[in-house]
Amino acid sequence: MRWYTALPSSAVAAGAATIAYASLYERTRWTLRRFDVPVLAPGSPSLTVLHISDLHMTADQRGKQEWIAGLAALEPDLVVDTGDNLAGFDAVPPTLKALDPLLDLPGAFVLGSNDYFAPRPKNPLKYFKKDHERVQGDKLPWRDLRDGLTSRGWQDLDNARGELLVDGRRIAFGGVDDSHIHLDRYDEIAGPAEPGADLRIGLAHSPAPRVLDRFAADGYDLLLCGHTHGGQLRVPFYGALVTNCGIDRDRVRWLHRWAEPTPAHPAGTWLHVSAGLGTSPYAPVRFACPPEATLLTLTAREA
Questions:
Q1: Residue 120: per-residue pLDDT
Q2: Three-state DSSP state, 39
Q3: CB under 8 Å to 44, separation ≥6 — which residues?
Q4: pTM, two decimal places
Q5: Most CB atoms within 10 A, among 59, 102, 109, 181?
């Protein structure tokens, strides 16, 4: 007696087509998103910020490398990189080459777990389990990446504060190392964000709510994060299946309010979560969530 039911051939074909689309086409459909963020003081001229994240670069991904290098043509005022740049032991040189045209611009960065540790095969179902065990590979040459970025003037904001003068505006920064692997040390940067700055930006690789809440309480105007890949696999009309961190599914990518304006902090706190530009080599698929970078145009808020 047959104890199983065979899938209809149409269902098998549809599944195969979906996998082919997700792995062969959408995974390399590089996309530029644009959002306006009303975060500057009334009457201020606009600023542009290019936000890149989660490159997960391997040495042979030349199409991705060329696309990233081409982002310099946007001529942003500031570039922010929120980590997980690497996906292999030989990835630092091609990553720095891809970023080279952008390194001539003012920039800041934090690192992510995949800058420190190489990817390993994982059971994808574990992401549906809260507080699942982290699987880390061998150590990567993250110091070479960090030194390549800082030698060109980009600021390392891993558990650090910083400041840049951008287009005549004073921007204060605070950043934390990756909370996904418990490297964040917010106490080392805690305290009111620089009140005399024209803009206050917080950086974190993973948008962990406990970290975002502390940034907001300290008066940061804009928070930039990555890590989630926007869910990576999204169901139309439903959204991300998982977020891989504590943030809610509705804010797993793109621009959202994190904290409402108050008299003491009239801009409130905006959050942008990048859907990222890559995937793990062991899960090379994206569906309804193309790889992307974002150009944020910071505009004046209403008086």
A1: 86
A2: strand
A3: 169, 198, 299, 300
A4: 0.91
A5: 109
